[in-house]
Give the backbone structure.
Amino acid sequence: ALLVMLLPLAIGSDWPSLRGGIGTFRWKAAAAYLAVFAAAIVAFMARTKYFTGHWSLFYGTSLRHNDTGLRPWTMFDAEPWSKVAHSITGLVFMNEPPAADPRSLVLIIAIVVIGLVLLQLPIAQRVPAALVLATITGAAGALVAHSHAYPGRFTIHLIPLASALTAIAASALFSHAAGTAATSPRLNESGGRVA
């Protein structure tokens, strides 16, 4: 998912900017990243084989306890989606069991910003596509696995991304408010417009 960060940050999340920016994607850097990542997976699996006798990426992990069960063939089953809803709620609120928490406000604002971007509202031009895509893909793990552990365990990587989205949204909001105030007509004491 981090490959999306190879898009230049100057590329906005609106469709025209994104289409134009795809040509600037650094394919050689992506290939190098994927090669190193693949080598790390093979090395991790070799380590598991050495210590357990099983050539596996997930053997001995807690995945079987935290698996939501969401698969292409279970997309229309209610049980996996119930687990996914619990997982996403825990991710957003940074609590287990999920419960509203003021510390999660930055993530909630980021979700709102992503929603505005997906609707292609004007803020989409100001928000870097790489940042939006990294946040979405960073949260995608909650669809397949959920941890019943300490608060924020699966959110820690999203906090910097959500903080950046929140700061960009605040900047856009204040810029818009300042621009509106500067262009709105002023009134004099008697209620008439000032030239």
Remarks:
- Residues 184-188 have pLDDT under 50 and may be disordered.
- Residues 187 and 193 are 4 Å apart (CA to CA).
- The chain has seven helices and no strands.
- The first helix runs from residue 15 to 21.
